[in-house]
Amino acid sequence: MRVELALSLAGHDKGHYYVVVGEEAEAVYVADGELKLLARPKRKNRRHIQPIRKLPADVAELLQNQMDDVVIKRAIKLYKKHVEK
User: Fold this and answer.
1) Fewer beta carbons under 10 A from the terminal one: N or C of the chain?
2) In Å, what is the CA distance from 74 to each residue of 4, 9, 11, 24, 60?
3) Are 20 and 52 in contact (CB under 8 A)?
4) How far apart, in Å, are the Cα atoms of 23 and each of 27, 34, 58?
5) What per-residue string of b and e applies to 62-79 under the rule 16 or more CB within 10 Å gives b?
6) CA dist., res. 27 & res. 85, Å (int)
């Protein structure tokens, strides 16, 4: 599975960034390192997220390392800084 970021398009968390940590046929499991931890990821319908395919190099490198809640939180924060520029 390729690690990727995703933007929530529907639900009470609309506009929230997540890291996809698991997949099923019609759903994905996402975590943000704060409210939704890696130990208990949120299940979301695939239609309700927008995958982010083109990640900045530093964010992609960070997500390739050992995955834990701190790394997920740091990667999302770093991606948001790139988006704001």
Assistant:
1) C
2) 14, 22, 24, 26, 12
3) no
4) 6, 20, 24
5) bbeeebebebbbebbeeb
6) 32
Interior/surface letters 9-22, b for 16+ CB within 10 angstroms, e for the rest? eeeebeebbbbbbe
Segments making up each domain of the chain, as ranges: 4-84
Question: Residue 53 — pLDDT band, cuts 50, 70, 90?
Answer: confident
Distance between CA atoms of 62 and 3, rounded to whole angstroms?
Answer: 11
Residue type, 13: D
pLDDT exceeds cutoff 80 at 77? yes
User: pLDDT tens, 7-49?
Assistant: 999 999 999 999 999 999 999 999 999 999 999 999 999 999 9
Does domain 4-84 correspond to CATH entry 2.30.30? yes
Is residue 17 within 8 Å of 36, Cβ to Cβ?
no
